[in-house]
Amino acid sequence: MDRNQLQRQVALKRSSLFEQQFLDPQQFVQLEDLEDDANPNFVEEIVTLFYKDSARLFQKIEQTMQSRPIDFGKLDDYMHQFKGSSSSIGAIKVKNECSQFKEFCLAGNAEGCFWAFQRVKQEHHTLRIQLESYFQLRKQAGLVRHV
């Protein structure tokens, strides 16, 4: 496949991430605008940090949900942190699921929190797959330098 075809695929993949509302175009484009010769992989690095931080927060949420009695305030705080991280990369679907989780926390609904957390993790995982595909296409198209 030639470079032009790959670049078109990158553009289509990026558009589909926006159209399917995986990513907020305004937020994601702001991140992309920060890439330059000094930081050619900036967006991928930010996304990698997001996923590392997510793993830490998910572990804290799971531990808190297993404790008795459940500290819904602590759960809400952890999810608030995660929702903020999700917003910083423009992860729309993940952020929306975080809001649902937070509503169950406010209601003191442990079962609702459990099911909402499963949806948060599912959207988080789906986004990860989509973004990995996008970043791989960018590399193949030569749009990102290998450092």
TrEMBL record:
Transmembrane segments: none annotated. GO terms for molecular function: histidine phosphotransfer kinase activity; protein histidine kinase binding. SUPFAM superfamilies: Histidine-containing phosphotransfer domain, HPT domain. GO terms for cellular component: cytosol; nucleus. It is found in: Cytoplasm, Cytosol; Nucleus. The modification Phosphohistidine is found at residue 80. Residues 39-134 form the HPt domain. It holds the Pfam family Hpt. InterPro entries: AHP1-5/YPD1, HPT_dom_sf, Sig_transdc_His_kin_Hpt_dom. One of its GO terms (biological process) is cytokinin-activated signaling pathway. Gene3D superfamilies: HPT domain. Keywords: Acetylation, Cytokinin signaling pathway, Cytoplasm, Nucleus, Phosphoprotein, Two-component regulatory system. PANTHER family: HISTIDINE-CONTAINING PHOSPHOTRANSFER PROTEIN, PHOSPHORELAY INTERMEDIATE PROTEIN YPD1. Functions as a two-component phosphorelay mediators between cytokinin sensor histidine kinases and response regulators (B-type ARRs). Plays an important role in propagating cytokinin signal transduction. Histidine-containing phosphotransfer domain (HPt) contains an active histidine that mediates the phosphotransfer. This is Histidine-containing phosphotransfer protein. The gene is LOC110761292.
